[in-house]
Amino acid sequence: MYKIESKNVDFFYGASQALKNINLAIKPNTVTALIGPSGCGKSTYLRLFNRMNDLIDNTKIGGQVLIDGDDIYAKGVNVDSLRKEVGMVFQKPNPFPKTIFENVAYGLRVNGITDKKFIEERVEETIKQVVLWDEVKDKLKKSAFELSGGQQQRLCIARALAIQPSIVLMDEPTSALDPISTSKVEELIYELKAKYTIVIVTHNMQQAGRVSDTTAFFYMGELVEYDNTKTIFTNPKVERTQNYITGRFG
Amino acid sequence: MSHLDIELQQLKAETIKMWTLVNLQLSKAKEALLKLDKDLAREVILGERRVNAWELKIDRDCENIFALFNPVAVDLRFVLAVLKINNNLERTGDIAESIAKFVINVDTDFDKKLLEITRAVEMYDGALFMMEEVLEAFDKLDTALARKAFQQDEILDDINVKVNTVIADYIKNHPENIEPPLYLISVIRKLERVGDQAKNMAEEIIFYIEAKVLKHRSKAEKKKE
Question: Rounded to a whole number, what is the distance in Å from the CA of A235 to chain B's nearest CA?
Answer without folding.
Answer: 5
